[in-house]
Amino acid sequence: MVDHMPFPAAYARTLGQVGALRLVTARGDSQEPDIRDGDLIMYEEGTPYRAEGMYVIVLDGDLMVKRLQRGAAGFRILSINPAYGPIEIPAPEVDARLTVLGRVVWSGKQW
User: Fold this and answer.
1) Can you give the pLDDT at residue 3?
2) What confidence category does residue 109 fall into, taking pLDDT thresholds of 50, 70 and 90?
3) Residue 29 to residue 37: CA distance in whole angstroms
4) Mean pLDDT over all residues of the chain?
5) So what's the pLDDT on residue 105?
6) In Å, how far are 25, 30, 39, 52, 102 from 1, measured between CA atoms?
7) How far apart are alpha carbons 16 and 103 in whole angstroms?
8) What 3-state DSSP class applies to 91?
């Protein structure tokens, strides 16, 4: 886990509300090749779901970085890596199973 990371203030403001920006370290391969194990992810905490995109979520108690799609039937949770299939959350189950912590606004790669 990273406690802090210097970013130019002007650049950080383009990403979101500076006081709400949070860093987490990605674990696993479900978002490869876009996000790899060990990459840093920055998300804007408290950003609700607004449109399809990459979000930091809690699903059934597990912290994840996933692509979210919302439809009339509920949410579809997607991985970029084709080895992982989509997860469907029916609308009546969303509040009990899914918490959106914020939208991913930046990622840094390990080489």
Assistant:
1) 67
2) confident
3) 6
4) 91
5) 94
6) 6, 19, 11, 27, 17
7) 10
8) helix
Reported for 15-23, long-range contacts at CB under 8 A and 24+ positions apart, including other chains, are: 15/42, 15/44, 15/105, 15/106, 16/44, 16/47, 16/103, 16/105, 17/44, 20/44, 20/45, 20/46, 20/47, 20/102, 21/45, 21/105, 22/56, 22/102
The answer to whether 45 and 102 are in contact (CB under 8 A) is yes
Q: Residue written as tokens 């997607």?
A: 78
Can the peptide bond before residue 33 be classed as cis, meaning omega within 30 degrees of 0? yes
Average of per-residue pLDDT across 44-73: 94
Q: Are 78 and 35 in contact (CB under 8 A)?
A: no
- The pLDDT assigned to 111 comes to 64
